[in-house]
Specification:
The complex is a heterodimer of chains A (448) and B (210). Chain A is mostly beta strands. Helices cover 14% and strands 46% of the residues of chain A. In chain A, helix 2 packs antiparallel against helix 3. Chain B has two domains: 42 residues, no CATH class; 138 residues. Chain B contains no helices and 15 strands. Chain B is globular. The chains are: A mainly beta (448), B mainly beta (210).
Chain lengths: 448, 210
């Protein structure tokens, strides 16, 4: 970053300071031009007073594992939010929940003009963190207990977790008096992709605001070799990968549904629903020995080719009747053959009353051209029925809504699937919080 | 506007005042602390070398606050038990002056307020609320600090002061207030936190390697 025109006079340019560890003599570089309070020797793990020209030893700590290594090496520079930052410090912190230790890593980033900010990493999930300049407010619940929401810059954050965080390992420079073993009560409030955290120390409470970052963004920003470690599970403020806005999707669905209803209403109003035939037929087993089929009166279909609805009604009760229909154009001889069954069964069983079927049947024949028509009907009747009267009602130009039903489902399905995916994502997010969703079995040890 | 010019009573170097209301300044060459009287400049002390610091701001740094341009003309360096910070005395292009605080790259701009009936230091405690200009402020921290050094032009005499108590008051927005108990009569400053980018600073210091 450019520092503008250099001044004509004034103090010399600040430079990164090269010093030696007073304990082991290893080289120590102070990169933050005096902003660091403490610096940690990488070879003997002494915590040194960065403000002291002699680097007085403040603490020495033992490392239990030798493989605590920052994923971004100290001294690496990268661009975040358009600003160059240099990694000057690294610490590992941990918390214990139900006897399990969870560790995460924090990186101290420095720019001489913009100051200090932080990156955190937990199981491949990253956050870009800065200290809050405006004090958040916390709403207490009615019992005066733990605070459930916090407000920051006009946005509301939900309480996620409160835990004691300890510092186990430190490296490089820190703008505060860092010590291994120091504990702070950390409370996280989330509003994905942001997280608002308070760290309660002895004397003060420090608020910070973080924004979720993907490993690949970090790798790109710092030009790191290889690939970032894969993110495991769902992190507290990880943005949901589900289609940006579920509520918006439902709003769109509702709009489409209204449009469909309007179309249906429109077509329904436009349809003429013209009755063309209504006849009742008497069937008696004794009289149908030879001629099983008969024809109806001739009726006329006028106007453009249109739908023809054939409704059959028969007063069946635990019986059936089957009608073989042929709609025949008297002028051209063109015929439409189809069969309809009318059956109705009902009764009582251990579950109570039941019924199946209906005394009414309806079928729609599409695109029948105008002309003179009649039906040939050949009934087949349940052997148990000696005689029955059934009626046939024919209507021209009826609206057909089946397509709209399919369209409705086609719109509904993605909205439901998306909502479900959003729901399961939020569920796995909150299962890690102090407020897990209900009905979750306590054997959640496999989802860490 | 012609800038008032005088000579350092100690070394004779030319002293240019950028701000007409300056009460105290420091000679750039001999580091004498000079106080303006009706007739001339009087040497009242000598500035010890300021410790090296990491502020990107320096005397002559220019910037913008809202629609006003400003130039940095002076500085007070304070220290407290957690470190130090700078209060840069800035002159606005409308002739008024303000303070640009720089605490580890956190920037804030404040102006002296004429509010009356300010609380005595013994009356203030953390969590207490005050209202000035219809804005409620909450006391967040009370910091004992001391003067580590001065540079350039200042609107008051600050050459013989040592200890000072500051009361920081915050709001739910970027606005804040500071009660300054340097003098027997408390002083109130009202200001707001500002983004480095928004100040559009020029003539900044340069840092090796950046």
């Amino acid at each position: 970053m450019s520092a503008g025109t250099p001044p004509l006079s004034g103090p010399p340019k600040p430079q990164a300071k090269a010093l030696n560890c007073p304990k082991c003599g290893a080289a120590i570089v102070l990169r933050s031009f005096g902003q660091a309070e403490t610096v940690v020797c990488a070879s003997c793990h002494c915590i040194l007073d960065a403000k002291d020209p002699n680097l007085a030893i403040l603490q020495q700590f033992e490392i239990k594992t030798s493989d605590v290594r920052p994923l971004i090496p100290l001294g690496t520079r990268g661009k975040l939010r358009g600003t160059d930052y240099e990694v000057i410090g690294f610490e590992r912190r941990s918390t214990q929940v139900d006897g399990i230790t969870y560790c995460w890593h924090e990186y101290v980033l420095f720019n001489p003009y913009k100051g200090i900010c932080y990156l955190t990493e937990y199981n491949g999930h990253w956050n870009d963190i800065s200290i809050c300049k405006v004090l958040p407010t916390v709403d207490h619940n009615m019992f005066g207990g733990s605070s459930l929401t916090a407000n920051y810059l006009g946005e509301s954050y939900k309480h996620f977790q409160t835990a004691d965080a300890g510092t186990d390992f430190v490296l490089g420079e820190f703008p505060w008096q860092v010590r291994v073993g120091e504990k702070a009560a950390v409370t996280d409030y989330v509003h994905p992709p942001r997280v608002l955290s308070s760290e309660k120390l002895d004397k003060e409470v420090i608020w910070s605001i973080g924004e979720y970052m993907y490993g690949r963004e970090i790798w790109e920003a710092f030009k790191l070799p290889g690939v970032p470690p894969e993110a495991m599970g769902v992190y507290e403020n990880q943005p949901s990968p589900v289609a940006t806005n579920v509520a918006g999707m439902w709003a769109a669905f509702a709009a489409f549904a209204v449009l469909l209803l309007a179309l249906i209403a429109g077509f329904d109003m436009r349809a003429k629903k013209e009755p063309v035939l209504h006849q009742t037929f008497h069937w008696e087993r004794a009289k149908v020995a030879n001629e099983t089929s008969f024809v109806t009166d001739v009726f006329e279909l006028k106007g453009r080719p249109s739908t023809v609805e054939v409704k059959t009604w028969a007063p069946v009760s635990n019986e059936w009747i089957y009608l073989n229909y042929a709609l025949i154009n008297q002028d051209t001889g063109q015929a439409w053959d189809f069969g309809r069954e009318v059956s109705y069964y009902s009764g009582y069983d251990s579950d109570g009353s039941w019924s199946e079927g209906s005394r009414n049947d309806s079928v729609v024949i599409p695109s029948v051209p105008s002309g003179h028509y009649y039906f040939r009907i050949e009934p087949e009747v349940d052997p148990a029925v000696p005689a029955i009267a059934y009626s046939v009602e024919v209507t021209r130009d009826v609206p057909v809504f089946g397509f709209y039903g399919i369209a409705f489902l086609a719109l509904l399905a993605p909205a439901i699937i998306t909502s479900f995916r959003a729901y399961t994502f939020e569920r796995s997010r909150w299962s890690e919080s102090d407020h897990p969703p209900m009905q979750l079995s306590s054997s959640s040890g496999d989802d860490e | 506007m012609t800038q008032p010019v005088a000579n350092c009573p100690n070394c004779g170097a030319k002293i240019v005042f950028r701000w007409s209301s300056t009460v105290q300044t420091v000679c750039e060459f001999c580091k004498s602390i000079l106080v303006r009287t009706d007739v001339d400049l009087k040497k009242v002390g000598q500035v010890a070398d300021l410790p090296p610091d990491s502020s990107p701001i320096q005397i002559n740094t220019e910037g913008k606050y809202g629609n006003k341009a400003f130039v940095v003309v002076g500085r007070i360096l304070y220290e407290y038990d957690q470190g130090g910070w700078n209060e840069w005395h800035v002159m606005m292009n409308d002739g008024t002056s303000a303070w640009l605080a720089d605490a580890q790259s956190e920037y804030a701009l404040s102006l002296s307020s004429k509010a009356q009936n300010l609380p005595a230091p013994t009356q203030v405690h953390v969590g207490q609320q005050f209202t000035w200009n219809n804005q409620p402020y909450t006391v967040t921290v009370i910091t004992p600090a001391h003067y580590r050094g001065v540079e350039g032009e200042l609107p008051f005499q600050y050459w013989d002061k040592t200890n000072v108590t500051f009361v920081d008051l915050r709001t739910e927005s970027t606005k804040f207030a500071t009660l300054d108990y340097s003098d027997p009569e408390p002083a109130l400053y009202l200001g707001e936190f500002v983004q480095f980018e928004d100040l559009k600073l020029k003539n900044l210091r340069s840092f090796e390697g950046w």
